[in-house]
Design a protein that fits this description.
flat; mainly alpha; transmembrane helix; 5 helices; transmembrane; membrane; 69% helix
Length: 160
Amino acid sequence: GALLVAGALCADDVKHPSSLRKLSPQGVADPSTQGDEAPVRALHGPHRDHDDDHHHDHDYTDRVALGFVMTTIAGLSTAVGSALSFCLPRNNGKVFAVLCMSLSAGVMLYVSFGEILSKSIDEFREAISDGGEAYAYATLCFFGGILAAMLLDYALDSMF
């Protein structure tokens, strides 16, 4: 939250540079100037890539807006999904509940495993000299882990 606010304030600083505190060459706010914008300016840092007369707009406000839109969509999809349960017949409630929970568990597993697999591929690319084989190694380890879990489940189930 604080970074989003700081990003939005930094975009506002660019539009109104006269309200900023002066910074030393190290990017530290000059204590002789007053204003509430100093912490934001110190966080944002000095603009050394261009002069003080030419300030370009940053896309911080676009990113903040995108964050709010995505959060709103996620919240609305949760609300629509919960409202859907009131619109369906109640005679097969247990079957419907099992199907919905299975679907949601599958989606969560897919997202989790997809994230793990992509991180594994990245780690294999860094660890081995031939980055082209990283996908194969990550996939083999991924499915090897699933096979090991199934074998352990079978072995423990037959023992107890």
